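PROTEIN DATA CARD
Card holder: GAF domain-containing protein
Chain length: 151
Origin: Leisingera daeponensis
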Amino acid sequence: MRADYETLAKTIAALTEGETDEVALMATVACEVHHADDRFDWTGFYRVVAPEMLKIGPYQGGHGCLQIPFSRGVCGAAARSGEVQLVPDVDAFPGHIACASSTRSELVLPVRNGNGELIGVFDIDSDQPDAFSQEDADRFAAILTQVFGRI
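Structure generated from the sequence above:
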């Protein structure tokens, strides 16, 4: 099953309407996205909790890394650069952190609030190689802006 992005965006908008708590929003988005597509093996957020440090937030799937410095891994690269990381083969990514040995490809998007401040990253892992497209990245970027851009 592949994500139906229009339905997913509408569902997330309806579920998060009026909510401003970051953790509640992250939990809802992680749950809805994780169950929307068979490619998604781990879906969750890492929150900015200190300068140059991410800590695990709400997620679906097996356990994740508890903390990730901005200087390491795909999530760190997204936080450090402020750019989407679309990684078709995690083993070829310099400094990849193997939180789960099953991960083959990864999509990580920076998450910003309405003031443009980085509040975290949204991480989707797949146990399939080259599982993500630019369309996936663009659609999730729009959903994240819709949800977190208002807080």
